[in-house]
Amino acid sequence: MMAEMKFIGGCICLDFVNTVGGRVTGRDIVLRDKLKDYPDLATWSRLAGLSTAREVRCLERAAESHPARAAATLARALRLREALFRISKSLLGRSAPDESDVDVLRSELSIAKAHERLLRTKTGFAWAWDQSDHALDAPLWRVSQSAADLLTSADLGKLRQCGGDECGWMFLDTSRNRTRRWCDMKDCGNRAKVRRFRRREGHR
């Protein structure tokens, strides 16, 4: 059964980065990966609002018919996720991201752009994604586009990382005073409060 998913990032690409239970503080070690196989990726896409239930069923059937392609797509997804995490960490540390990580995003973005179509609508024109039921990497198109949108927007200044132990989730701080510290006050925030309480009790 797929692990519980939470969507607190504020944008699709950060929610994708957060498809882990946590990360070892100061290191790129993933704890409790939530994308263990291709169906997990397809299900995440539905929960994130990127794919309909019918589209996910089509993706899962395609994955069953083409297991090697599905495995390769999952490997690409994990590579993109970790590149986006490291890019985010670099930006938070006010340093330049590693060019190899940026190249991963560029590559995925190029693939995504190849699947965009300019369609005629009743009121003019609009961009849309092609609707191939066998495009196992369709969820990655939306993720890479979301990442490009974030990196080129003013919202990038709202990027934060949760201060919880072994969490490391990324999010956009939209609070009034830009003072949000935790991915979720009910989780990491409460655990931090409990630890502070225990430390105070231990010093009495």
- Ranges with pLDDT <50 over ≥5 residues? none
Number of helices: 7
User: Largest beta sheet: what is the strand line-up?
Assistant: 1-2
Tell me the Rg in angstroms. 19 Å
Structural class: mainly alpha
Count the E strands. Answer: 6
Gross morphology is: globular
SSE ordering: HEEHHHHEEHEEH
* Percent in helix: 40-55%
Beta-strand residue fraction? 5-15%
* Mean pLDDT rating: 89
Largest sheet: 2 strands, antiparallel
Regarding quaternary structure, how should these chains be classified? single chain
Calculate the terminal CA-CA distance, rounded to whole Å. 45 Å
Structural write-up:
The strands form 3 sheets. Strands 1-2 form a two-stranded antiparallel sheet. It has a two-stranded antiparallel sheet with strand order 3-4. The model has no long low-confidence stretch (mean pLDDT 89). The chain has helices spanning 12-17, 38-47, 53-65, 67-92, 99-113, 138-151, 185-202; strands at 20-23, 30-33, 116-120, 125-129, 159-161, 170-172. The radius of gyration is 19 Å and the shape is globular. It is built from 7 helices and 6 strands, in the order αββααααββαββα. By secondary structure, it is mainly alpha-helical.
